[in-house]
Amino acid sequence: MRTVGISDMQISRVPEEILVTYSLGSCVALSLFDPAVGAGLIHCMLPQSSIDPVKARQKPAMFVDLGVSTLLDAMLAQGARRRSLVAKVAGGANVFDDRGMFRIGERNYASLRRILWKNDILIAAEDVGGTKARTMYVSVGTGRVLIKTGTEQVEL
Amino acid sequence: MTTQPSARLFAMPSLPPAASKALRLLQQPRVDARRIARLAEDEPAWAAELRRLAATPLWGLGSAGDVEEVCGRLGFRRGVQLVAASAVAPLLRAPLPGYDLAEGELWSHSLAVALATREILLERGLRPCEEAFTAGLLHDVGKLMIGPALETDPVPADAVELLVEDTEIRAVGMSHTEAGAILLEHWGLPYWLVAAAGAHHAPGENSYLVADLLHLADTICLSAGLGTGRDGLRYRVSSEVSLRWNLSRRSVERVVERTVEALDEAGELIPAGRRR
Predict the structure, then answer these.
(1) What's the pLDDT at A16?
(2) How do residues B24-66 score in pLDDT, each as one tens digit?
(3) Among A9, A11, A20, A27, which one carries the catalytic annotation?
(4) Are B194 and B181 in contact (CB under 8 A)?
């Protein structure tokens, strides 16, 4: 099991390995899987890198707009083919907020969809929104994705 | 103010006795660091925790010397913070299965909320409030009381769309904010701290600075996934507090970013139970 922290991304070619990222609140996680290469997982915290360009250079995975492109480029550099990639998404939850100040999850998810759309990648499965905190497990060998919420577990 | 919890359901966690005496002593207007040091001599484990935390980037004393030197160098208000932090850290670091919080997760969340109060004020061009930082460290101690009861009286499955406090009341008859106020009062801590912890999910229109900051900071940290556990994000943002502070979305995002960075620098971003 290899942990992907907040504002972190990992790619693995080891079929027996599981990538896991914990405590997805408003953050979003994206897994990309190519059977010929393996799997990548990123845990992004904020939608737009423009709020801190310096930090964006140091930690691109912190931001959806930069991190997703970075993960995609890294997968392609390892030999993945764009049309083979299977994308699965989790996270993007929100607190109950009538004024919308804290709806970071919605903004993260919107940013993620925009970047994937620009890169011609469809989302194969997702578990997003609501108020749940999720943990995402990705099997590198099969691309299977499990989402755990408390005692519940669903496969994407 | 609130009813006392049933002894059958809720046990009140204790602070190290010397730390407890120190916290009461620090409510006096002037306290000699030597008196804190003398109390620490009776409790080496607490003293070691205090010195260890003082050396972290959170208090920034590096390789500080003994307890007297640490308290003397930090000054009164940051000294109170450190004494409070070192007193509750061992309790907050324990895993809390009733909330699905791994080892270290509630401690990491409490530090994050303390740090976020600082970042919110800096974002608004204001000076950090040391009292709000202390309140951040202590705001969720009520979960220590409620957590064990939630293991045996879990939240009903149909309660997933209710607010966390409502599900706690349904499951065990008391919310963690109410329990926190009772516990802090039991520990002899000052009323402003008791009131802020008791109101941190619903500060209302007659709130004051520390309670507002706790509410905003807690919301920000939970949104970032810090200490959510089983509860997820089933919390409601107070409209009154939102209106009073009127933070922009970008301000909120900058506070999230800086809080997480500060927590990472302190080595507490990944709780012990999540490290492999």
Answers:
(1) 94
(2) 888 887 777 788 888 888 888 988 888 888 888 888 887 767 7
(3) A27
(4) yes
What are A146's strand-pairing partners? A137, A155
Region for A79 from its dihedrals, namely left if φ exceeds 0, alpha if ψ lies in -120 to 50, beta otherwise: left
Domains and CATH numbers, chain B: 13-93 (no CATH), 94-276 (1.10.3210.10)
Residue-wise pLDDT for B242-273, tens only, equals 888 888 999 999 999 999 999 988 887 777 66
| DSSP one-letter code for B27 | T
Q: How many other C-beta atoms can be found within 10 angstroms of the C-beta atom of residue B18?
A: 21
* Angstroms from B239 CA to nearest CA on chain A: 7
Query: Is A44 known to be catalytic?
Result: no
A2-155 fold: 60s Ribosomal Protein L30; Chain: A; (3.30.1330)
Q: A133 vs B233: CB contact, 8 Å cut-off?
A: yes
Burial call A3-27: b when 16+ CB within 10 Å, e when fewer: bbbbbbbbbbeeeebbbbbbbbbbb
* In chain A, domain spans: 2-155
| pTM of structure | 0.90
Length of chain A counted residue by residue: 156
Q: Write down the mean pLDDT value for chain A.
A: 93
DSSP string, B105-142: HHHHHHHHHHHHHHHHHHHTT----HHHHHHHHHTTTH
Whether residue B6 is predicted with pLDDT greater than 60 in this model: the reply is no
Cβ contacts below 8 Å, chain A against chain B, sum to: 119
Average pLDDT over residues A36-60: 93
| Per-residue pLDDT at A23 | 86
Q: Does B205 touch chain A (CB under 8 A)?
A: no
